[in-house]
Request: fold
Amino acid sequence: MLGFLLFGQVSIASANALADTPPTINEDKVVIGQSFTLREDQILNGDLAVIGGTANLKPGSEVRGSVAIIGGLLEVEGTITGDVQAIGGSVTLAETAIIQGSFFNFGSNLRQSVGAKIEGSQISNLPFDFNFEKVEIPDPTIVPFEAARTTTGFIAKFLWAILQIIAMGGLAMLVMLIAPKSTDRIATSIGKQPLTHWGIGLLTAFAFPAIILVCFITIVLIPLGLIGITILVVAIIYGWIPLGYEIGKRLFANTSGMTPAVIAGLGTVILSVVARILGAIPCIGWLLLTTLSLFGLGAIILTRVGTRDYPEELSVVKPTHTPDFQPNSTPQILEQNQSKESESDQSGNSPESN
Reply:
């Protein structure tokens, strides 16, 4: 009887121990502005990212991956099998903390207790080595070769720029042949309301980086962010072609014998040359080039990639012609009938009177 009781107590104790074991997390964990606790003996099969939040790894816990902290608070009492990358914030390593990888510290506050282990290397600040101890004076005999190299590099860059401009003109002609209606619709829309399209392009340029940043921070949405960047680049390139086509129409519209594809190619070449000249201006060249690109980007968005007109043309329905109704015409008709009857009576009575 006593044996049965002892066996029952042992079974109950083992069941409670199994019930208290926390479940294993088999995914990456992202903590943004919140608190996260990895309980004792709990395992995280994945990476951990802490952005402006708090994460506490209890004793016996294990992160089977890397940990990244950006401006948050990380308290480690367990084991991390990967690396720890800290940008700002604070990292506290308790006596039982074990980091099997390396610790990259970029401006964070590290508190390491006695007994805490970092098996890899510790890297602080940016891993760049600047050495200004040795200054070499160039040999005057090499100056002509350097001048020749500089001249050759300038010619190569100039020829590469010409090749890019010609390639852009050829691409404009190809796009005009493949999608003439949508390209003409976008170009016409830019010509009608250029400032409106530029404003929409500017709003897109401000909003798009924030969306991409959220996608990259979320980690899971990184592929979506890459797709968004690709779409934006394609939209900017495609929006450049209708802008060049609109310039070509204004310059060569009255020239006979030019097809729309040729006009689009010439206009895009002229626009690309102007963009190259503006881009070469120091400090503000990139700003001017971006300003030109916003016209086409806004037109792509407002016309829905050339599938509709902007502004939309409203069709006016002409009213059908109905005979005018004169409410006072009935009495006039009655008076005319009465006058005709009286004349007939008089003509009928004239023989009797004779």
User: Anything to note?
Assistant: The helical segments are 2-20, 143-178, 180-192, 194-218, 222-252, 260-279, 285-302, 329-353. The chain has a mean pLDDT of 78. DSSP finds eight helices and 16 strands in the chain.
